[in-house]
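User: I'll paste a sequence; please echo it back and then give the predicted structure.

Assistant: Echoing your sequence first, then the prediction.
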Amino acid sequence: MDYQTVVKNYSEERKDAVVNFAKANKLSMMGNTYHNKALDLFFMLWHESFPNAPQQKTCTGCRQAVCKFFHNVADFISSERIKEEESLKAKKEITSIKKKKKKKNV
């Protein structure tokens, strides 16, 4: 399953939570610990998205896999937002150019 499929049903609040908790978890992992709230959210989302692939927080490999997956999801969400912002900027520039041309013609 690709990241687009996973995040398509997420609300903006949930996307913000994933991105923020991924950042917090990465910082915590530098100190060899996990961010507890981030783990709770990641495992809850994992079980919603992949009910047939159970993971347990007590399993080291499961924690690593789920965290890595949601860190990548957070990066995907951030990159999609950047693309969206760039697209909006480009549309605004095109619109302003068209307006300038109309003013010159009038």
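The chain has a mean pLDDT of 87. Helices lie at 3-7, 12-30, 36-49, 60-105.
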